[in-house]
Design a protein that fits this description.
The complex is a heterotrimer of chains A (about 290), B (about 270) and C (about 280). By secondary structure, chain A is mostly helical. Chain A contains twelve helices and no strands. Chain A has two domains: about 60 residues, no CATH class; about 220 residues, MetI-like fold. Chain B folds into two domains: about 50 residues; about 210 residues, MetI-like fold (Orthogonal Bundle), CATH 1.10.3720.10. Chain B starts with a helix and ends in a 7-residue tail after the last helix. Chain B has eleven helices and no strands. With about 270 residues, chain B is mainly α. In chain B, helix 4 packs antiparallel against helix 9, helix 6 crosses helix 7 and helix 7 runs antiparallel to helix 9. Chain C is α/β, with parallel strands linked by helices. Chain C contains eight helices and ten strands. In chain C, the strands form two sheets. A six-stranded mixed sheet of chain C has the order 6-7-8-3-9-10, sandwiched between helices. In chain C, strands 2-1-4-5 form a four-stranded antiparallel sheet, with helices on one face. Classes of the chains: A mainly alpha (about 290), B mainly alpha (about 270), C alpha/beta (about 280). Chains in contact: A-B, A-C, B-C. Chains A and B meet through helix 2, helix 5, helix 6, helix 9 and helix 10 of A and helix 2, helix 4, helix 5, helix 6 and helix 7 of B.
Chain lengths: ~290, ~270, ~280
């Protein structure tokens, strides 16, 4: 069903000022889909080619075929499931405890200046210290392995969640508070009915971010001090010269990290039904 | 002396302090740090479980045991790796970010690939890096590069695609060509966001350097901290953590300062 | 008032334009036609949502009509061009350039005149809009009214064939607004260019216009074109003349009619309360 009344306006200087009605077929197989698929495929193709033709030291690295083969086997082993569960548990432990501490703390800091003055400076001093640097301390604190790795996740997730929560409160339009006070609300009501819902969008961003960082932290923690877990498994694969598993492990962690962030985002989105839209994809905003 | 005289001098001192900009907020802020140190000391002193952890006083004492020559060498080592990775990240990430943000073809072609690789944590790359790069320095620099790369790409991309559409439109009405549009309009407009990306990137780069050094054991602050951990000199460990934090913060501030210089137009008041 | 220089005639011919959203299509302009004679200040006025900004975008070349044609001096409009400059509702000054650099931007980009000439004209224009002393300030340091004036200077130095103004004085306080109108009129009356000015303020519209085009609700067409035959140069006194009041009443009646139709359709306003104005 071609619509004849549309004239094509060639993209000018990279900004296309016109949208065109496209017939249905070209919507399915649009340039975008083609190039996107090409993009992802090319990763594997280039990878495979580099390994195959022994470019530089790529000959030492397993190719996509090997990785896939070993991966299939590994996923079926019980070891994989134990590792995954353990890593997930540690991440969740660290993440949930970080959220439980950071969200109330952040709400209070954003809400009350006195409280902010009393607590924020300490936090600001601690913030630049990378989570990794806490590892020796973690081992001291929690000689018991699970907790020490979870602690690293805690530190990793804590600050993004905290900062986003504080920003969330600070971004609430002051007019809401004034309206509430005019209507006779008590501070407690204002807190629960304005501050908390108002900060939720930022909190969800912080949570998704924190979750991603928690996964990074768990890998670090496990590589350095673990006996089980995906991070440890990757390191072991290296020492036992079972190289394809390294990449399998990396992929597994990538998927889990990405998936858990996405889950967090969709859960929190459910809590925020009034939110207008999810951030649109970048190339859509270019062509507007 | 009489109580009234004490109170008198007290209030005079307070007034002088207020003139210098000290007020209740500053007091509370200082209290915050003091309370933290106090809590730390108490925790270590009176709970059996944490007795291995050094007290703030111990850490402070360790400060004087630092040999400046040694510590500065380590700081420099780490700093060089950070800067190396950061600038390579900038060299590759910045043009890529511009392309993805500006041209829809580049976006379709490159963005998915980047998105797919991003969730893989930088640390997970360590074994592969050790395999691939012979030289330990290049291993570490690769990791720092990897850490800097994604924030730079994403923030550059975001900054460019979020440019207020009226600005390029206005420029087009003035008859500007494609190159001019990019250099004179799009990039200046995207500058703030690009600098945010650089700030985040340098923070992550520090993280990566510390992690890599802890594992690779070839000098640098991360290694320094880990070494003292293995010989159980815990005050040094905590001192080391503090120094790492300080360096990271200073780098962030440096980028801020550079940014503010280039973007005077934002906050002259 | 046509001019010796017959350039800048804009013809809007039977234009239809719709807005797409994910679920539906809203027709904004429907078989809309009008002519902007060269050398005139034509003002477009109409109820909100009637597509005034769409018309500006179509003439500027940021959008293309779904049906019909938009012509300038007989040629199709295919894209943005320095011939047709737009002034938006919100300032589009480049925040990273000073006032002076903003004004110099056009001439430097098109190389239409030498740098020396451009400099002289920039300074002269900035002087005319009263911003000589603020030449080296950044937009963020200027007030709203000053930013608008800077934008006027930036646009006019390029001597565009057609100037499109999309409610440029909206949001300014009454006194600044009056001042801006006077600045604008001086510049227009001296330059004899073609101007299309969009506004929702009737008084502003009549004060400025040679011709007044009144739009219907959407889907919009031209409802009526009024000839504003008040003498030029326009001064504040004209606001008290009899002819002005006649024109104003005529315009208000038409607009009121359209507003009533709109609220009847959407069922929003309380019709009885509104209609007692006419009693």
């Amino acid at each position: 069903m071609k619509n004849q009344n549309h004239t094509m306006l060639a993209p000018v200087d990279g900004f296309d000022f016109e949208f065109q009605k496209k017939p249905l077929l070209s919507k399915i197989v649009s340039l975008k889909t083609v190039l996107n698929t090409l993009s992802i495929l090319s990763i594997f193709v280039i990878w495979g080619a580099l390994v195959n033709f022994g470019v530089y030291r790529f000959v030492l690295i397993p190719g996509p075929a090997e990785v896939a083969e070993w991966g299939m086997e590994w996923v079926r082993s019980s070891q994989f499931w134990i590792d995954t569960s353990l890593s997930t548990l540690r991440v969740l432990g660290g993440f949930v405890s970080a959220a439980l501490v950071a969200i109330p703390l952040g709400l209070m800091i954003g809400w009350n200046k006195i409280f902010s003055d009393l607590t924020f400076p300490t936090l600001e001093i601690l913030r630049p210290i990378p989570g990794i640097a806490y590892i020796p301390l973690a081992i001291l604190f929690f000689p018991w392995e699970e907790a020490s790795v979870a602690f690293i996740c805690f530190v990793g997730a804590f600050f993004p969640i905290l900062l986003n929560t504080i920003t969330g409160v600070r971004l609430i339009d002051r007019d809401y508070f004034r309206a509430a006070r005019c209507l006779g609300s008590r501070p407690r009501d204002i807190f629960w009915h304005i501050v908390v819902p108002g900060a939720l969008p930022s909190i969800s961003t912080g949570a998704a971010l924190g979750m991603g960082i928690a996964w990074m932290a768990v890998v670090a923690g496990e590589m350095i001090s673990g006996k089980w877990g995906l991070g440890y498994r990757i390191w072991e694969a290296y020492t036992l010269i079972r190289y394809p598993l390294i990449i399998d492990g990396m992929i597994a962690i990538g998927i889990l990290g990405f998936g858990s962030s996405a889950i967090i985002r969709s859960i929190t989105l459910r809590l925020i039904p009034w939110r207008k839209s999810i951030t649109e994809s970048l190339d859509e905003s270019i062509t507007k | 002396m009489a109580a009234s005289e004490v109170i008198n001098t007290g209030s005079q001192v307070w007034k002088k302090l207020k003139k210098m900009g000290v007020n209740w907020t500053t007091v509370r802020r200082i209290m915050s740090v003091v309370l933290f140190l106090l809590a730390w000391t108490i925790l270590v002193q009176f709970t059996g479980h944490f007795h291995q952890i050094p007290k703030p006083m111990d850490v402070f004492a360790a400060l004087f045991q630092l040999k400046p020559g040694v510590i500065f060498v380590e700081i420099l080592r780490s700093l060089l790796r950070v800067l190396g990775g950061f600038f390579i990240g900038l060299a590759i990430g910045f043009p890529l970010g511009v392309a993805i943000g500006y041209s829809r073809i580049a976006n379709y072609l490159f963005f998915p690939a980047v998105e797919v690789v991003r969730p893989i944590p930088p640390i997970a790359w360590i074994p592969l890096t050790v395999l691939f790069f012979i030289n330990v320095e290049s291993q570490i620099v690769f990791l720092t590069f990897y850490g800097a790369f994604f924030p730079i790409v994403y923030n550059t991309m975001g900054g460019i695609s979020e440019v207020d559409i009226r600005l390029p439109r206005a420029a087009m009405s003035f008859g500007i060509n494609r190159m001019g549009m990019l250099w004179k309009i799009i990039l200046p407009a995207a500058m703030p966001q690009i600098f945010t990306g650089m700030k985040v990137a340098i923070g992550i780069t520090w993280l990566m350097v510390v992690a890599a050094e802890m594992i690779a054991s070839k000098g640098g602050l991360g290694y320094w901290v880990w070494y003292h951990h293995t010989v159980m000199e815990y005050p040094m460990v905590i001192l080391g953590m503090g120094i790492i934090g300080l360096c990271g913060a200073l780098c962030s501030l440096a980028i801020d300062a550079i940014g503010n210089h280039f973007m005077k137009w934002r906050n002259i008041f | 008032m046509t001019d010796v220089n017959h350039k800048g005639k804009v013809v809007f011919e039977d234009v239809t334009r719709a807005l797409q959203s994910k679920k539906s299509e809203t027709i904004i302009l429907h078989h809309c036609s009008f002519v902007v004679a060269s050398g005139t200040l034509t003002v477009l006025i109409g109820p909100s949502g009637c597509g005034k900004t769409t018309i500006i975008n179509l003439i500027a070349g940021y959008e293309k009509p779904d049906r019909g044609r938009v012509l300038i001096d007989g040629k199709h409009i295919t894209g943005p061009d320095w011939e047709r400059l737009v002034l938006f509702q919100e300032t589009a000054l480049f925040p990273w350039l000073t006032c002076y650099d903003n004004v110099m931007f056009g001439p430097l980009a098109t190389k239409a005149m030498s740098r020396q000439e451009a400099h002289e004209q920039s300074v002269a224009l900035l002087e005319k809009v009263g911003l000589r002393d603020f030449m080296d300030k950044y937009p963020i340091q200027l007030s709203g009214g000053m930013q608008r004036r800077a934008e006027l200077a930036r646009a006019l130095i390029n001597r565009p064939t057609v100037m499109l103004m999309d409610e440029p004085f909206r949001g300014l306080d009454a006194m600044t607004r009056e001042l801006m109108q006077e600045y604008y009129l001086r510049l227009v009356e001296e330059s004899h260019g073609t101007h299309l000015f969009v506004t929702s303020e009737v008084e502003e519209a009549i004060f400025l216009a040679d011709k007044l085009i009144i739009m219907t609700n959407k889907p919009s067409r031209v409802k009526k074109v009024l000839d504003i035959d008040l003498p030029r140069p326009r001064v504040a006194d004209v606001l008290r003349s009899k002819r002005y009041l006649e024109l104003k009443t005529a315009a208000l009646d038409i607009l009121h009619e359209e507003a009533m139709k709109a609220s009847k359709e959407s069922g929003k306003a309380d019709i009885d309360m509104v209609s007692c104005r006419r009693a």
